[in-house]
């Protein structure tokens, strides 16, 4: 694959003046913290030059860090030997540049959401993050001299446009792991939630349901417990279901609320999320009064199972609102 976008041309135009000013202020504040002897953790802790990027750590390890130092993200896959070879080159360059940029590696199959959000068409693909703003660097393999040219341009833009200058780091110190703080004792609420998770993992659905309800009785807004309870109750409803009989009953009577609820549960457990949501939205449309409210509440429970930010949930919420209002 031939490298594309092997240039930093046009990068400056991606940042608004306001964003650049805010980034400079953040960078200056970060430098002041590093240079303050009173701030021992900021002054002495060495930042790693190469980090593994995940969807869970992206905000803290990439977005926040990009206010202090350019972050280069390399998307790779184990099956793509070219991408692993490029990572080896970038890791060596990160050590040679001694902290003027940080390299983040993101395995695409483990980070599908990042892969899609960056619009990656294939691997290897390399992007930069400056002051929270993403910009493409190149895709495909490239000669080392071209890579260093792009990195030099990136570092220059970071300093001139955003005032971001990575602190020099000794590669040996950066590789050494920081001493971990002693673990914090778990709270009673965390212990109860952990016990609920264990019961669910072991297939003790009745025990898991009780445990999650106990957590929610003390902390009604606990999102993790809400999700666990919704999962446990769903599995409890379908564990003894006769799938053929359930689906036949639902097909024979589209207005039969219990039949449609049971079929929607099977749809969801089977991975047919849109079918489950569509079935219940249609049932809400056909029903009224208590029946309608029963279906609506079950649909909200299934939303909890999938997660409120899932695009399928967002679409179904909109469809439900149209039916109700």
How would you describe this protein?
By secondary structure, the protein is α/β, with parallel strands linked by helices. 58% of the residues lie in helices and 9% in strands. The protein has helices at residues 17-35, 40-44, 58-63, 81-97, 112-117, 144-162, 171-175, 188-201, 205-218, 223-238, 243-252, 257-269, 273-286, 289-306, 311-324; strands at 50-52, 71-76, 102-107, 125-130, 133-139. It has a five-stranded mixed sheet. α4 (81-97) links the parallel β2 and β3. The longest helix has 19 residues, at 17-35. It is elongated. The protein starts with 16 loop residues before the first helix and ends with a helix.
- How big is the Rg? 26 Å
Strand content: 5-15%
Number of strands: 5
Gross geometry: elongated
Please, how many helices? 15
Overall SS class: alpha/beta
Which key phrases capture this entry?
alpha/beta; five-stranded mixed sheet; 15 helices
Would you kindly provide a brief summary of this structure?
Helix content is 58%, strand content 9%. The protein has helices at residues 17-35, 40-44, 58-63, 81-97, 112-117, 144-162, 171-175, 188-201, 205-218, 223-238, 243-252, 257-269, 273-286, 289-306, 311-324; strands at residues 50-52, 71-76, 102-107, 125-130, 133-139.
Secondary-structure map:
Layout: H1 17-35, H2 40-44, E1 50-52, H3 58-63, E2 71-76, H4 81-97, E3 102-107, H5 112-117, E4 125-130, E5 133-139, H6 144-162, H7 171-175, H8 188-201, H9 205-218, H10 223-238, H11 243-252, H12 257-269, H13 273-286, H14 289-306, H15 311-324
Parallel strand pairs: 1-3, 2-3
Antiparallel strand pairs: 2-4, 4-5
């Amino acid at each position: 694959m031939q490298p594309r976008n092997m240039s930093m041309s046009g990068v400056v135009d991606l940042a608004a003046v306001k964003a650049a000013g805010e980034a400079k202020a953040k960078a200056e504040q970060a430098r002041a913290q590093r240079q303050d002897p009173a701030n021992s953790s900021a002054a002495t802790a060495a930042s790693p030059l190469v980090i593994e990027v995940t969807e869970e750590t992206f905000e803290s390890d990439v977005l926040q860090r990009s206010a202090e130092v350019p972050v280069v993200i390399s998307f790779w896959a184990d099956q793509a030997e070219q991408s692993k070879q490029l990572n080896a080159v970038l890791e060596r360059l990160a050590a040679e540049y001694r902290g003027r940029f940080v390299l983040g590696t993101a395995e695409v199959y483990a980070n599908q959401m990042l892969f899609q959000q960056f619009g990656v068409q294939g691997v290897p693909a390399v992007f930069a993050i400056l002051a929270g703003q993403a910009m493409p660097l190149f895709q495909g393999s490239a000669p080392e001299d071209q890579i260093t040219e792009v990195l030099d341009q990136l570092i220059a833009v970071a300093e001139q446009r955003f005032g971001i200058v990575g602190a020099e780091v000794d590669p040996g110190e950066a590789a050494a792991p920081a001493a971990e703080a002693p673990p914090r004792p778990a709270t009673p609420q965390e212990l109860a939630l952990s016990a609920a998770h264990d019961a669910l993992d072991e297939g003790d659905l009745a025990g898991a349901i009780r445990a999650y309800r106990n957590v929610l009785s003390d902390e009604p807004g606990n999102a993790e417990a809400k999700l666990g309870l919704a999962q446990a109750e769903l599995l409890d409803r379908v564990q003894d279901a006769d799938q053929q009989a359930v689906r036949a009953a639902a097909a024979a009577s589209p207005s039969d609320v219990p039949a449609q609820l049971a079929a929607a549960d099977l749809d969801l457990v089977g991975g047919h999320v849109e079918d489950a949501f569509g079935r219940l939205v249609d049932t809400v449309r056909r029903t009224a009064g208590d029946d309608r409210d029963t279906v609506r509440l079950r649909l909200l429970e299934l939303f909890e199972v999938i997660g409120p930010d899932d695009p399928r949930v967002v679409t179904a919420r909109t469809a439900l609102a149209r039916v109700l209002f």
